[in-house]
Queue: 2 jobs
Job 1
Amino acid sequence: MTTSPAPTPAPSDPAHSPAPASPAGPPAPASTRALSAPAGTPDHDVPPGALRSLLPVLGAHRATVLRTCLAALVDQAALVALVALAAHTVGTAVTEQRPPVPGTVAVLIGLVLLRALATWREMDLSHDLAYRVLAELRVRVFDGLARSAPARIAGRRSGDLAATALGDVEALEFFYAHAIAQLIASGIVFAAAAAVLAALGPWLLLAVLPAALLLAWSPLAEARGRAERGARTRGALAEVSAETVESVDGLRELLMAGALDRRRARLRSAGRRLARAQRAEQSWETGAGAARDLLVVAAVIGVVAAAAHAASAGRLDGAWAPAAMALALGALAPVAESAASLGRAGGLRAAAARVRAAVHAPALAPAPAAPRPLPPGPLGLRLRGVRFDYGGEAVLDGVDLTVRPGETVALVGASGAGKSTCAHLLARYWDPADGAVELLPPEPGHPLDLRDLAEDDLRSAVSVVGQEAPLFHGTLAENLRLGAPDATAGELSEVARICGVRAIADALPDGLDTPVGERGATLSGGQRARVALARGLLGGPRVLVLDETTAHLDHRGDAELAEALTAHSATRATLLIAHRPATVRRADRIAVLEGGRIVEEGTWDELIGADGPLARLFTREGSTATA
Ligand SMILES: Nc1ncnc2c1ncn2[C@@H]1O[C@H](COP(=O)(O)OP(=O)(O)OP(=O)(O)O)[C@@H](O)[C@H]1O
């Protein structure tokens, strides 16, 4: 009964099943909360039209879509014509006692060849179309993640995100490659076959219509159940994916904590939940397939009965009776397959909704309509009345802080005070809810709001180096050039030297051309910090923000990097976020962040002498002794 060789994925096939689900994380800014909907959101909670809303992606491939539909149409029509003509030929041979004429045999052979060619063409075109659309969607999803990062990433498990970026998009392959063209072609072929049946006799048409209507209605009838079962499978799949990624990432910690057995047990039970969910989907799929086959068989029997009755009453040429049966079978089988495809596509709604959310993710830091040019020369930075929250209570509540060109200011505060948040605002991951983050050109009175700068200008002027600046798979030199691909070999070598990366490279087999391994795994934490700082300095930023960059280094390393930073520091504004007193006291000025505001500013000696918040902070941490 199967008429199309298109491989249809089992619902349990991970390659075709969107994965999702995530535990709750810290609150994200309001604008991003919609994007962070847990991937295990039941399909029936997904707003309708998710699949439809992705169809415009096909717009750029209109010609291929048309050719695919045409190939599918020829494929299905050739098959129906072939079985109908073959049946008619046999009927003629039986009723008129004469063998088929050579012309009929030639047409039959031609139809076989046409069908084979059309099947190949349809498969080729539909997969080409699907893979091209998916490649584009992957990039759009990545762009969406990048636009909404890092808020979207906060609180999501990496396995879950990978599932969204890859699993959900992969799952849609079935929709683009098989469902659309098949649906259109089967509709047209059925309409044509129905017209022929009606011309042969109205009872023939009446015999197939109920089955066709039931088949067309079945995806709607089973939509809710399918959505629930699909959501269960995808939730379980996402759990397995997230658990696996997390476990592999934290293998060392698990090993050291002796927690491998417990982790294995968790993985096993997550795997069992997935197996149960997949089995439930598969059983339903098999049962639904059998029910659809039954409907087609019932309709064909009805056609046989009606044709036999009409033939015996002399209303139908005897040779047309088997042809009518073949026509009914040939036209209904693709309808049944389309119903199966539509049902399966319905199970992809949640995946489509997540892809849509990622694709249409609003920019958390939208590009300005008319960017202001960045003046040459040194720059300072200013947070002016900055208020910011992550969707809950204000983290920053009116921060005023200025770092003049050539100045180094240390920003200190208790853990969770909002220091990194200030750094993130300077990197423009987000914009403040109130107030402004500005760059200060030498001439007073012309501050530049970061929101008014073009992305490239901002990145070339401001460099933010964090504590955990991840390295990428590639060589040391490639990692250093990340933000400054056009830096000369001389500049690279100079920055590597002053940050102590040269010494690291000299100990490696290929120097700066040595691969650093996945996430810089072949380097120590302190070495990675040096590479991160060198990377941040390479482009010659005019504003440098160091967020606990030297926390991994010993006192000597910290002092060496401080020395390295003095090069060009006269033309740079540096904001230093640090906990270590020795690092903090080197700054020209220190600002203390407390309760979402700057509560104290001054030199180390002034503030320690004043016995205020800074003194309390460092005394509480018992660290003045190590200063
Ligand atoms: N992406 C996020 N989503 C929600 N809340 C966040 C997010 N990032 C930080 N927070 C919260 O904002 C507050 C300030 O965090 P931040 O990282 O800025 O503090 P910090 O002063 O840098 O702390 P530390 O010294 O420990 O690094 C904390 O309460 C933290 O839980």
Job 2
Amino acid sequence: MQIHNLSKTPSILNTFMSELRDKTVQKDSMRFRRNIERIGEIIAFELSKSLQFESHRIETPLGASETVLHHSDIVLCSILRAGVPLHNGLLNYFDAAENAFISAYRQHKHDPESFEIVVEYLACPSLEGKTLILADPMLATGQSMVATFEALKPFGTPKAIHLVSVIGAQPGIDYVTKAFDADVQLWIATVDDELNDKGYIIPGLGDAGDLAFGNKLQQ
Ligand SMILES: O=P(O)(O)OC[C@H]1O[C@H](OP(=O)(O)OP(=O)(O)O)[C@H](O)[C@@H]1O
Ligand SMILES: O=c1cc[nH]c(=O)[nH]1
Ligand SMILES: [Mg+2]
């Protein structure tokens, strides 16, 4: 897997990231969602440089302009529920994309430290020969990303796969690297070193779904 860690080059992205992490600023859920969306927009721009482009001739009112435009074969798939603001940010730029949504949540059966990923809702167009962008803001253990990809397999074989995330933990990135082919690309805003015993990214930002949409009752 090819990893593009955008934090390696300091940019305005750091401002949005620090607001997501800051335990006071992140309480403003509208700002929290918008910052994830803004990071989605930045990643969309960076990722777009790796797409296939072809020549187009555009007629202006006064003449003709030659330019290159990317193929519109993108399927944007996000993992509910924290994936929604990231999806919106990517879709702001890839506005012609087809869209897929999948639910994945951690089900704690016996104790708070062990869980399995449950995939339930899935709405997806054909992926055959398309460019799949699979987005989830948090890549912690990596199990949601891998379980989601397994669930998408009956929908066809994409010609290219891009994973998009905001914060990853190194153990989760190692897990995902083993599960995906070498030509899959991961676009990630930053990477933290570790997970705690509940599978949360340290220092991370806390629970992205709850910060974006409010607390939920545990199932
Ligand atoms: O890499 P993993 O260990 O699988 O963890 C990451 C997952 O955890 C979060 O979702 P969560 O299950 O909290 O659901 P939510 O989006 O509904 O809050 C996050 O959005 C990822 O989907
Ligand atoms: O740190 C984490 C890990 C999983 N899900 C989150 O929202 N945060
Ligand atoms: Mg989830």
